[in-house]
Design goal:
single chain, mainly alpha, Arc Repressor Mutant, subunit A, 3-stranded antiparallel sheet, two-stranded antiparallel ribbon, 9% strand, globular
Length: 253
Amino acid sequence: MSEEKSTELGNKKSKKPREKSAQYPPYDLSSCIELVQVVDRLGGKQVAEGSLLSELGLKSSNTKSYTGKLSSCRQFGLLDAKANLLSITERTDLILHPTEEPEDVQTKKLIIEAFRSPSLYQKLINRFDGKGLPKSTTLANILMNEYKIAKAVKDSAAKVFVSSAKFAGVLGDDNVLQVRQTYEAITGEVPSDETGIHETGQKPPAMGQVHSLKLALSSGRSAQITVPSDITKTDVEKLKNMLDLLAVEEGAE
């Protein structure tokens, strides 16, 4: 075997497999809002990915910064992407074009709801809401050891969480996370538990018990839905279809 081939094989063997990470937003809320503003300027709905790339001055959809922002926008519930077509969500539309007065109240409320949306953030809010966040290095280590965030990205993931919390207005100079308190102060409503936020010390329902979800509606109204804790995906689809039918019937009157 030649020395060149021997070296090539040695290099292949020395390469370590890339460490897998649990899902997390690689870009913060502020960056995501900037991206969806561009999508909105391009029409908002069914925007060709090529048009967005051109607007951003990018040549490839595989650019790391682009794919990272796209993933983050999806996790925050700000953007949908199907078959190379991008659309802002209803949440984004109302953040950028509020329909209620005062407008800043609606915008702040929806941005907090966006902050609560990523699965990782739900868990962190559950754990730290009303408490002081650990220093950045400690938070990063918690993400790695307890939430399966890869070592290579743990520091960045922690930084993005803090940055997003500050942008959402739920983390002040005292470093205390105040999601529920801030939401209630802004809206006068208790945030629903649909994204996983529970009272301190409250355990999720056991099998056979039920979830009681309080949902914030428009014009200050609310609705409450009770479902089994072991509800199936099929049942969820049935429930969604029933709600869609209710909306259609209401609109026909």
